[in-house]
Each structure stands twice: as structure tokens, then as C-alpha cells.
Amino acid sequence: MNRENGKSERAPHVAACPFCSLLCDDLIVEQAGGRVRVLKNGCGRAVSGFENPDGPSQPRLKGKPATIAECIERAAAILRGARFPLYAGLGTDVGGMRAVLSLAERTGGALDHMHGNALQRNIGVLQDTGWMTTTLTELKNRADLIIFAGTDAVSTHPRFFERLVWNQESLFQLESNARQIIYLGAGLNTKPGRSPEGRKPLHVRFDPPRLIEIVSALRALLAGHRLQAAAIAGVRIPVLNSILEKMKAARYGVLAWSTAELDYPQAELVVEACVELVNDLNASTRFSGLPLGGNDGAMTANSVCAWQTGFPLRTAFAAGYPAHDAHRYSIGHLVASGSADAVVWISAFRAAPPPAAKPLVVLGALDTHFSEEPDVFIPVAIPGLDHAAQLVRLDSVVSVYLERQRTSPLPSVAHLLTEIQNAL
Amino acid sequence: MLTRLSGGKVYDPAHGVDGEARDIFIRDGRIVAPPSGGVKPGHEYDLSGAVVMAGGIDIHTHIGGGKMTIARVLLPEDHSAHPVGSGRITRSGSGLATPSTITTGYRYAEMGYTACFEPAMLPLNARQAHMEMEDTPIVDKGAYALLGNDDFLLRLLAEGREQALINDYVAWTLETSQALAIKVVNPGGISAFKFNQRMLDLDEEHCYYPITPRLILQRLAQAVFDLGVPHPLHVHGCNLGVAGNVDTTLKTIAASDGLPLHLTHVQFHSYGTEGDRRFSSGAARIAESVNSHENISIDVGQIMFGQTVTASGDTMAQHRNRARAYPKKWVCMDIECDGGCGVVPFRYRDRSFVNSLQWAIGLELFLMVKDPWRIFLTTDHPNGAPFTTYPHLIRLLMDKSYRNERLATIHRGAAAMSTLGSLDREYTLYEIAIMTRAAPALSLGLTDRGHLGLGAAADITVYKEHKDRERMFSQPQFVFKDGELVVKNGKVIKITHGGTHVVRPDYDKRIDRILRPHLEKYHTLGWENRKLRDEEIVGDGQGRILIAKCTPPQTA
Known about the structure:
heterodimer, A: alpha/beta, Rossmann fold, Dimethylsulfoxide Reductase, domain 2, 3 domains, 5-stranded parallel β-sheet, B: alpha/beta, 9-stranded mixed β-sheet, 26 strands, 22% strand
């Protein structure tokens, strides 16, 4: 990186993108005039993330400009006075999570991610029944049938089809153009599911919260039961039977769901039904689930928490040791009930609104807007853009090393939390 | 500063020292010669009567990587039941079968172990495996990279490509995943399962690639040998857990054709089909074969009764075992055209005929394999039992009357099928020091570990003599890691950070020409990201990379 007039320059090079949990690491970016530009392989989300200006970085105390040192001191004072602080948002990298866990343990706090509700719908099922799942490279090379249950994948992971479905070549003579795509649900962007040759996906439409009925009916039909009804959630039985036949005939089918989009009470039952359907199909063929999600560092936060404490997120150190409770230690419950008496909100990848809580410390993207200024606001560096970072991909198997792409004066979450802990 | 450990009974098999009272001097983390006249040690520990050994080395323990974290999330009950509070200097954690990483480091150190090796690191999960190991304090770590179910290698073999190319690929894998050795799990079987093949024996053909497990095994063993990697190919064979697999295991030993092989958790691969229940011990046949094949080493994978979880790369076997899950939940994953993982919780019961016989088979293997330099003490943590059962296992090996007491409590039908009661052997402290220190270090190529010679790293464990060996081995009086006193009376008193052992064999870098296009075309992780950088392991200075030397045969 060479620097002229204080502006750093770097010729086009490969970079990894931290702005969704696909963690695409084939972007070509350059740095010119202090700005990063995405030249190739960037989706809209990546472009707006990378090209986000490195703006004013003034930390604030209740809206008033302050130094970082003053903010650290104030944050430490808030935590010293808190009986049960909540560390929430958790949009950060592996290094940031290590620091969060250390501080949360020291202060007897609780942990939950901004996508905690979505995460928990998967974690709850994993803890109850387990599952059979696959990862992105398997999908790309093997899947001859991909069923999207209540999700279109691209709304949360824009390059899903481009990178993983309509790839020109695959390992096992699978004609990627011949892949069958089925969408279950409504309100989905099904355009990316059209093959490059123009073959349309099958779209089975019904009221989205009735997905549980569709998946359960498929299970019942697979088990050989006859259904009395002529239609389930408005979908005629012969249509369900034809889907089932495709599933049974698939050599390697994948059933994808996204718990962020299953946003209604008892949605974990849908996940459980999907898991059981996949398990049943494996009696005769190969089929795998693929839970989509994990944006804003959710997979990273959950993984680091799990290996360091033994539990997934929604874990608290109030008793002096980690304890996990999916309800009691959720952001929603801790804030609404007032049991958390201070909140540290962390969102380094993008501006995400913190919950209405007091006192509130925010380590957030510099363009975070507040309806009411928090007690402490420190704009933080973006992992994988302003500092090198490690992040865990959505399949929770692969992790990616992201190089620093620009010089930023902003501190990292890890650095700030370590300083706050030192100041306790 | 010079430290003197005086008067302990030293067991240092690498130098033939068998319980003689000796002084050991430590300076700057190393064992040094006695000072010339007049130099006073800054610190002195009077160890008269105590037993002194090098720090323990666990050659096969699942401590880091995605499947362990899946197992942790799968089993909140294991963690709720075993909380570990924060201490004055120690961090909190939880779990017995799959302890959290920080707790794992403390427990190993508190048991007198100073190095542990994760035996099943998928190259595409290597980054996370190392991140977890970096969060495992005090002990040194290292990992074996899994090959033999990755489509790149299977393709090369199916195309009949030359050995030199295989060697380069194996070396590239070791380098980029920062591994110490190579392991193969159910050669070809994990891949075959993705094509819906449910069984694959040593000489059966993979349903997609026209190759057999035997070929995969031989080519990988050859590669490891040619590259001069100190640890032989680490083999989890075909047909894990299947009654009658003793024949497969014997054929696997024969297939080695003189090349060094390490067969892991052999207990799970030593089952015959005799008796009314068509399940019997094959331990005697395995032991006889190991005894007569100098090129073979094994670890046992002893089971203990109680709740644990089995975590393995062997999806073919784990999917078969899912019906036995306890509690009733399990995970199987196909991973990245690289491998797989299967996590099945399990409770071994002393009232079960099969579990009881498994327990006896493990002990039979320990007692019938004669050379302690070629058999290592493992429970295949957590698959047979958590590593914290090692002191109990040591007592079973060292104390025949205790062993027979325990034998009397297992399923009677199993006890009747086992020769265990007639085996009189009792391991000596010297033999324990071989199988838990000197031999693993030698096998892994850790030249400055596992012994107490001049220049060795001062990883030293001191036990108070006790006739109850379980008590003795579960609470060392002192543990020194790189010369620092980290454990006193079985409790961590200082937190340090160990290094990561790796190998860096020489190879022809032109492998990139065929490997890079393959990965870029078919994979989803970029070329640059396949290589784990040293700085990712060293971190902010807590980690260290320790390179074990490779000695290819032509230069040896």
C-alpha cells in the first residue's frame, strides 16, 4: 500500500466481503484516493459496504463530542455500576467476539445477537433433534434438486444463485442447467431461479405461515399415508405428490430454509419438520438441509461463544459460570423485563438500531442514527475492511480471513472492549 | 533464572532412566546441565519420593474444530450439568464430554498433560480448528489434516496419476492447513456416502470413482513416507463399529506392506462375530498381528461407562449408528467435497453386553500388545470417554486386582467372552511413561518433548507417589510448561499459551498449476484463503509455531 498526500492507493486485487454470511472471497477491489472501489464480483450489498465512505469518526457522550478515552472511561463506569449488563448486537469478527466473551464473563453479563430470534429457531431444533445438513461446495457440485422453503436465498445472500447454482462446471457430470429448483411460499424473488437457458423454476404458492402444513404433508405422503383433504394450504395433493416424486428421484437433494424469514410464533416447528423430512428421505436417497442465515456476524458470534463457553448465544455469566437460556437471555426479554441494567450494543458491519435501553453503550458503524443519543457512542472499524478479520461462513464450517482494505482511524471492537475491560 | 528439581524418581524412557533419583535443572524453559560449581539455583523444589516424568502427550483427542463445536451446541445438557466457574486467574467454561476450549486446556494441564493433538482436522475447516486450539490455553497443540475423501485426491487416484503428484498435494495440504500429520478416515467411504453408498470394505470399489479404500490407504501412506513426515499415516479404517471388522483391520495391517501406519482407536475395529450374539473380541488376533508387524503402531480408544458423545468424520458409520443415539438426537454433515462429520451422543452401559465387551476389548488390547512404544493411551476423546478418565484407565492398567474388581461388575455374558480376567500384566510406571510421553513424542517427531534430556523443553510433571494410581495421576503435585510452574496440587496457578506443532515438507510448488484451477472452478473458498497464515496462529503474540522436521527417506 503506498501513501501519497495521506491517501492510500492499492492496485486491483482479490478481496473477501464481510457484508453477508456467504463471505464471497472473489471480489476484485482497488483503493484509490482513499476510497475502496469494487471492480468485479460485487453485489449491491458489497458495493455499498465497501464504498461506504470512511466518514467523521467523532465519538460522543450523550450526543456531545468526546475523546475515545473519555468514552472508554464512561463505558467502564457504566459497566462497573451494572449488576447484569447485556452485550447485544454482536455484529463483529472472531477477535471482537473473544473480547466480548472476556468482558461479559468479567462483568457477569449476558450475550445475544441482533438476529438472535432467527438463530434460536435453528439452535433449538439442533438441540432437540439434530439434523443432516450440507455446505456450499457440496451444493454447488452435487445438488440436482434444490428446494427453497419459504425463502428465495437472494434477499439475504445476493450471489447465491450466481456462485452456487448456475455455475458452469461441477465435479460429477451434473449439468448445472438441469438442476431443478422449487420454491415453496409466497412473496419470493424467484427470478434468479430461472436457469441461464430460461427454464423456469417450479413455484408452489401458499400463505407463508402455512409452510408447516406443506412440509408435514410431504412427510406424511413419504411415509405412505393417504391424505383425506383434496388440498393442503390450497396446494392440491397431486402437486405435493409430484414434488415428493422429484425429491425421491433426486440423487442429492437440498432443502434450504431461512429462519429470518420464518418470523412467526412456533416457527421452529417448521425447521423441525424440514429436518425430519430430510432424515426420512435419507432412508433411500441422499438429501441434506441447508439453513441459510448468519448475516451480521451471527455465525461467527455463535461459534466463538459455543467453543469458549460450551453453549450457543443467549448465554449469561450471572452465576459466575456460563448458563444458557433461549428465552431469559434474549435481547427482547432482557430489555423488556428490565433485567438487564445496562446494554452494550455492537454492530460493526453496518448501522443497526440498538434496542431502547438505558444506560446504553454503542460500538457501531459510524453512520448509525439514533432516535435518542446513547450514553456512549464510539464509531468502530468495519472488520474485513478497516482491519483484518476472521469470520465464519453461513454453513458454520468454512471460515475466511479478510485482509484490511483501507487505512481507517477507527478502533476495532476487540481493541475497545479490551480497553474497557482494562479500565474496569 | 535457574530452577532445580531435586531428588525426584525420574522416569525418562527415552534415556532409559527408570525411577532413579536425579536432579533436573531448568533455565529459560529448557532442561540444562547441572551448573558448574558455585551457581545457586534461584528456585529449588525438593521432590524426594515424588515421581517425575515429562509432560503427558495425547496423540489422539478431539479438542478443536467444527464437529466439536457442533457437539457442544447439540448437548447443552452436558454443559449445564458440568459448569466451571471463573477463578481468580482462570476463565469459566462448561462440559465434561465436550468441554469448552479454555476448560479443556486447564483440565489437560491439571492432569499433567502438556500437549494434545486434534486428529481429524478437515482442511476446509482448518481455520476454525486452529482458532479453537488457540483458545485452548497452557498445552501445546497440533492437528492432523484429513485426506482420502476429498474429491481432488480421489480424482487423481482414479486417473492413475503418479505418486509424486500425490506427494505434492499431501505436502501442500500439510502446509496450507498448518498440520502436523495426515489422517485418513474410512478411506473413500465418506465420499461414497455422498453418492448414497452405505458400506465400503477395504477391497470394495467406490460407486463413483473406480478405486478401493486399499488403494487410497496405500497411496497416502506412501506419500507420508516419501515426504518424511515423522508421524505415519494415521488411519481410522473401514467398517468402524461393525461386528466382524477384525478381519478388515487385519487386512489393513497387511495392506501396509511394510510402510509405517498408525491405526487409531483400534478397539472400535477389533470385533469378531463369534458367540450367540454374533459379537466377540478380536483383540487377541489384532494384538498378535501388531506384535509381529514392527511398522504398525496403534492407539486404543478405550471406552468407559457413562454418557459421552461420539464425533467423527465418518458420516457413513455415524449415520449407521444414529439409531443408537442417546439422547435421541444426532448430526450428519457432508462437507465441502472434502469430508464429512457425524455427531452421535452415546451412553455406554455396563449392563449392555456389547458395551461391556467393548470395555474389555480395549483393555485386552492394552495388555496383549507387548511393545509400549507402539501402543498409546487414548479414549479417542470424547468418543470412548472424556480424556479426564485417563487416570482411571492408568489404574486399570497398573493394578490387576482393581481391574478384576471392575471386571466383576460388567455384563456377565461379556465377561465370560473376554480373556481379560486371565491377563496378569500390570503396567509399570516406566511403561506408562513410554506410552503417554516418550512414544507419542517419538511418533510425532517432537524431538524436544516427551523426554527429560539436556536441551529438551521443560514440560515436566511431578506426581506424589500413591498406591492408588488413579489418585496419583489425577492430581500432579507440580506441572511445568516450558519451565513455568503452571499447576500446583492439581490446580492451575498460572495461565500460559502453548505453541502449535506443524510440519513443512518440501514439495514441488508447481502442483499449483493443476490444484488452483480445480479449486477455483469447483470450490467456494478462494485460493488465497486456503492457506492459513502464520500470523493467524501467532495472533497477537500468544501463539507460536513449532516446526517438526521432515526427513525424506532418500536424505535420511
